[in-house]
Design a protein that fits this description.
The protein has five helices and six strands. The protein is α+β, with helices and mostly antiparallel strands and 131 residues long. It has two domains: 73 residues, Arc Repressor Mutant, subunit A; 44 residues, 2-Layer Sandwich (Dna Ligase, domain 1). A three-stranded antiparallel beta sheet has the order 1-3-2. Strands 5-4-6 form a three-stranded mixed beta sheet, with no helix packed on it. The radius of gyration is 17 Å and the shape is flat. The protein starts with a helix and ends in a 6-residue tail after the last strand.
């Protein structure tokens, strides 16, 4: 996905900050504001929040609830269905492929004429290091 094209198609300005933030979040799986801010001392706090909110509106990002005090985000990748598991002790997070789970969810939604815009499945577990 080229952020420049997406911004232009949406009649939005292509800025250096938006491109830099997007390039960074492409390298992350799950991240929060601090993960972005730590990499960009030259970008104002408000610009980062505005950019994250813009990316949410454009369906580039989604918020994920990892039971944390910080708002957490994930890059949307419709081609890669995955879900998350979080260790209840050390807070480590892993993702796992979920094509079969997603297919079942979408089949059930279709049966009741329900259009899913986004979904999120979290499993709380205890990892092997914490058992």
């Amino acid at each position: 996905m080229k952020i420049e094209n997406l911004l232009k198609e949406s009649n939005l300005r292509v800025t250096k900050e938006r491109i830099e933030i997007f390039e960074l979040i492409k390298t992350k799986h799950i991240f929060n504001y601090n993960d972005i801010q730590d990499n960009f001392e030259n970008i104002w706090r408000s610009s980062i929040f505005r950019t994250l909110n813009l990316f949410l509106e454009l369906w580039i990002l989604r918020k994920v609830d990892i039971w944390s005090t910080a708002i957490t985000y994930e890059l949307i990748d419709e081609k890669h269905h995955h879900e998350h598991m979080k260790c209840e002790k050390c807070d480590s997070i892993i993702s796992f492929h979920s094509d079969s789970i997603c297919n079942k969810i979408f089949e059930e939604a279709k049966k009741i004429d329900f259009k899913i815009k986004s979904h999120n499945i979290w499993i709380i577990w205890t990892c092997k290091n914490c058992i």
